[in-house]
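W.,

You were right to be curious about this one. When I first looked at the sequence I had no strong expectations either way, so I just let the prediction run and decided to look at it fresh. Below is the sequence, 262 residues in total, followed by the output.
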Amino acid sequence: MQDLKISIIQSELHWQNTQANLAMFEEKIWQIEGPTDLIILPEMFTTGFSMEASSLAEPMNFTTFRWMRQMAQQTKACVCGSFIAKDGENFFNRLLWMKPSGEFHTYDKRHLFRMANEHEHYSAGKHRLVVDLNGWKICPFICYDLRFPVFSRNLNNKGELAYDLAIYVANWPQARVQAWDILLKARAIENLCYVVGVNRVGKDGNEIPYNGHSAVISPRGEEIYSKADIEDIATLSLSYDELAEFRVKFPTQLDADQFTLN
């Protein structure tokens, strides 16, 4: 299995300004040095973490969708990040996984952040998403999902490991960044996988500060990459051989408690 190259973009966001954010991220994407397999953008990367769903939501196959399709085609890399989507009469904090071919997958945020009343403005997703990229199984999540280990649990119905890499895109505030740092490592250790967290920096329109701490964590819980306070564009290579070797030496999934959720 080949290594996986991932590119992280930690950035400030223009508050509730989709066109400005798309222009900014397009410029940053073209600053990525060399080829990459996957480009990861923060949660609600077109607007910031806004509860103005009715005025900011986009249907599928509209501005953000088409932009992501164009970026994936031009860079020949998958692109993922979440935006405010309207689907029927409902609004979702929706992660879009766009392939260079134009094929795509979506994941709707399962755990809505009630302390910001997100649950009053958005509908919760019901299912996880696991996608394949160059033979790697990847499971993307959104922000507050990080606090719920059962939902992130890396076992399928056969008791086998379901994914190799978990991704958390976020608008995680500075006030609780210690929890972010700890939980990223916990999810990697307990799930025998790489974990990538991509957060934003700067202040949003509610004057809430964010200080990044985007990170890549090994299955051992070691920091491969971490960046605080400033904007950053980083490309890293994840070794599947090292992951497989560690899983052979330390197969904790074989002793995991067996249960299913209703």
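Here's what jumped out at me. The chain is about 25% helix and 30% strand. And, maybe more interesting for your project: The mean pLDDT is 97.

Coffee later to discuss?

I.
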